Amino acid sequence: MENNFNTLINIQPKEISNHYPKDIKFEIIGNEFTKIAVITSVGDNELEDWLSKNNDLVDEIYEKNRIILFKKFKSFSSKKEFSSIVSNLSTGGALDYAEPSSPRTQLEDKIYTSTEYPKEQSIPQHNEHSYSKSWPKKLFFYCEHPSEVGGCTPICNSSAVYNKIPSAVTKRFEDKGGVMYVRNFSQEMDIPWETFFGTKDIKEVEKYCKEHHMNLKQIDQNRLRIDYVAQATLLDKPTNKKIWFNQAHLFHYSNLDSDVYNYLIDTYGIDNLPRNSYYGDGTAISISDLQLIREAYEDVAFRFDWEQGDLLMMDNINFTHGRDPYDGTRQLYVSMSEEDGIHNYLKAAATTKVTEARKNTAAFFIINESKYGDSKAMLKYKLALSCRMLRSLQLDEGSISGHISMKVPNEKNLFWVNPFGILFDEITPDNLILVNNDGEVLEGDYPINVAGFCIHSEIHNTSREANCIVHTHSPWGTLFSSLEKPEILMLDQNSCMFYDNYVLYNEFDGPVNTTDRAIKLAEKLRDKNIAVLANHGAISCGESIETAMMYMISLERSFRLNVLARQMNEKVNLIDSKTAQNSKEWISNPMGFKIEFDALARRIEREYPDIKNYYPISLSI
């Protein structure tokens, strides 16, 4: 969402006249995602003097808004005044700028230039030091001289950014352990390692890396390499909101112009770039994921024009900042305070033993690679297995109704789906049909189910994450969907998977056999994995066949318990929302889904031995 003229007309500053002194004006500026509290001096006020008389008021405003812009106060006569203000508004003094990411000059004790990147470049949104395991809680920006053109400091609400990023992306980063950062220090590019570590003593560097859990490799006297893993998200305890808190998009080579990063890769190799980022497990980050992250920041960002003497105090966890390109002279000073770190955000219940045990379990299945991979041939095999799995578990009607589809990787608007007129236990990779968005059968000898095409094509188009879609008229699912209030009660662990992860589609008027009705359903589903269709069963979606299938299988278990619970005369004890959320985060993960799917797939191969004749000879095609 751009902060253009029309946006600013629609979102006017909100002046609040309550208990505020007459020598200031208080208002809220911003857009629907990001809002800034503004205190504007009306009289001839010096900020330090005014703060001494109104500390409680400022604390109250900051506690509520987490960001304050002070305007029209007298400009500081020296940088020491800025330093004094920082001390007065912080618990403890200002912090040193450790582990620098961009070039800065120290002007005064713990007062720095905001950045010295070339003015024609923009600096992407980021929380300060979110690439580390420790960071400042508060940031202060003081405008000594605004630029003639441009030079805004865009601000984003971090929780709004998290909510804007598709849930599949945030979940992928969390499931893969956060973000891995790689830095290659040399005299040629970026900043020297001596600047980063603040020492020329390699022994001190080794000690620092060990204390901060960084892997260090000394290539030669002038070149060092480090890599380490840090968080992707945080749970902000005061607000209980999830925060997107990392710099994956900024460190990744795709943040550079394509000409630049292509040259660097050709010259130095992908492993020797000055900086790069990966998923926490060391695998390459999807460029499409990074693009979605950048789009989320731009949608949420709010810009304001700097004026001389402006002071911005902001919560570094709840808000991000960046810089627009500019012309002319621009002098902004920055200071940081109140040391914070990941240790303050770890869940107390997540003991070291449990964490290590889970890591060891994950490592076992990563090392012992699944026999059911993700080549095109294997995807068709898994799709056929899934049809038979639904039959074996009695999740179909025992008839030709129901459908499972899978997008064809690297092909636009194509998906495989089971054909119309074939029973689920007759499906093989060879009789699956390939369909385009116009409903044309491009491969296969059978027709398509019209209702299935309408539903699946629109959901595939609407959601980037819905690679696989499963729709059945399962016995318990169909019965549950016919209830007057088909709300999934949090009865057990299976039910918790669907906490805040399903929608009710109540508009049943026969089979979904028009695109208009399918579009309404797809729009209703949006970023959820489950849709309960009134009198019509359910739909599950996922990035993979394993995820979509295990959601459907678990959903049927939950439907059964929910129907039985409603038949009981006694009240049932429901799981509270916090426990349900925690349970969902623990059990709803791609690796867990794949492990269970693989186990069921082996059973299906035993029950239907003929299916093994279709196991792909080559796993890479």
UniProtKB/TrEMBL annotation:
Residues 381-563 form the Class II aldolase/adducin N-terminal domain. SUPFAM superfamilies: AraD/HMP-PK domain-like, Clavaminate synthase-like. Keywords: Oxidoreductase. Transmembrane segments: none annotated. GO terms for molecular function: 2-oxoglutarate-dependent dioxygenase activity; actin filament binding. GO terms for cellular component: cytoskeleton. InterPro entries: Aldolase-II_Adducin_sf (IPR051017), Aldolase_II/adducin_N (IPR001303), Aldolase_II/adducin_N_sf (IPR036409), TauD-like_sf (IPR042098), TauD/TfdA-like (IPR003819). Pfam families: Aldolase_II, TauD. Belongs to the aldolase class II family. This is Regulatory protein. It comes from Pedobacter cryoconitis.
